[in-house]
Amino acid sequence: SRGDINNVYIDFGTPAYSPKGFNVNFKYDKASNSYLRYQGGKANVDHETGAIISVKNVIVLITDVEGPIDQYKHMAVRTTGSGEGYYFIDGTAVKGTWQRGELAAPFRFFDGKGHEVLLNNSGSTWVSMVMPGKVGWK
């Protein structure tokens, strides 16, 4: 069954670095069971095909983000350990956790009851990592 979560909002701004146009929305298209990516209010299109980027799963991992750490405004993002996770699949939202032991290990995703999250494997997945309080949906 498909849910009614129509819009996932991700804020990539930080207190030290908040460029315009870095906020992202994934708009759920129930007919294709896909999330369409928008950045800065505009459709985010594939450079090669000109088609809007479309994915079957949107994963948002909450972690520590520091920076900018250099003159190019790169950010340092913690990718090991654990944290909150939000999984948007088939128009639904699942709040849970993520875990990763070391850099070479795969990420593991869990729902609120500790069960592994099953992704829609009929398409691609977009993963975003942000600080707490930077994701929302309706």
Per-chain topology:
Blueprint: E1 7-10, E2 24-29, E3 34-39, E4 42-43, E5 54-55, E6 57-62, E7 65-66, E8 76-77, E9 81-89, E10 92-100, E11 108-111, E12 125-130, E13 135-137
Parallel strand pairs: 6-12
Antiparallel strand pairs: 1-2, 1-13, 2-3, 3-4, 3-5, 6-9, 7-8, 9-10, 10-11
Task: Please characterize this protein's 3D structure.
With 138 residues, the chain is mainly beta. The chain is 0% helix and 44% strand. The chain is built from no helices and 13 strands. The chain has strands at 7-10, 24-29, 34-39, 42-43, 54-55, 57-62, 65-66, 76-77, 81-89, 92-100, 108-111, 125-130, 135-137. The strands form 3 sheets. Strands 1, 2, 3, 4, 5 and 13 form a 6-stranded antiparallel beta sheet that branches. It is globular. The model has no long low-confidence stretch (mean pLDDT 93).
Summarize the structure.
By secondary structure, the protein is an all-beta fold. Helix content is 0%, strand content 44%.
The SSE order reads: EEEEEEEEEEEEE
Residue runs with pLDDT of under 50 for 5 or more positions: none
Largest sheet: 6 strands, antiparallel
**Distance, first to last CA:** 18 Å
Helix content: under 10%
Structural class: mainly beta
Mean pLDDT figure: 93
The general outline is globular
Number of helices: 0
Keywords:
single chain, 138 residues, mainly beta, six-stranded antiparallel beta sheet, five-stranded mixed beta sheet, 0% helix, globular
